[in-house]
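Write out the 3D structure for:
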Amino acid sequence: MASSRPASRVPITPSVIAPAIEMSTKTSAMSREAQMGQLGFFDTEKRLAALSAKGDPLEAIDRLVPWESFRADIEAVVLNRTR
């Protein structure tokens, strides 16, 4: 049988409200991809642009290494595998 006594209430004070507001702010600040668990249409492009702006080390390596000089060796190994 249900109790006829009213439920106890927590007084609404700044110390009670502040954590709830902080949690709400953090949740709303989360990116859509984190909330949805999937990347959006332009998310990859935005990430790559941000990396480039910060000085992506892979771009520096790409400028230094003559990748085409390795093409024949890589194709010989990859294309002629008999496994």
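Residues 14-79 form one domain.
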